[in-house]
Specification:
With 52 residues, the protein is mainly α. It is 85% helix and 0% strand. It has two helices and no strands. It has helices at residues 3-24, 29-50. Helix 1 (3-24) packs antiparallel against helix 2. The longest helix is centred in the first third of the chain and has 22 residues, at 3-24. It is elongated and about 40 Å long. The model has no long low-confidence stretch (mean pLDDT 90).
């Protein structure tokens, strides 16, 4: 497997876990705040893979 594919797969797993954290933190402001920043961080790190 290519390293780029492995990296993208890893970031997709991070996105899935971020979505899970968001779902589990519904109703708790600070947990939701942290979960949303985690999701945003994952998306920021994925941007270079889609825009070369």
């Amino acid at each position: 497997m290519d390293n780029k594919i492995i990296n993208i797969a890893g970031w997709i797993l991070f996105l899935i876990s971020a979505i899970g954290f968001i779902m589990s933190s519904l109703g708790n402001f600070w947990s939701m705040f942290g979960s949303l920043f985690f999701l945003a961080g994952c998306i920021v790190f994925l941007i270079p893979y889609f825009f070369d």
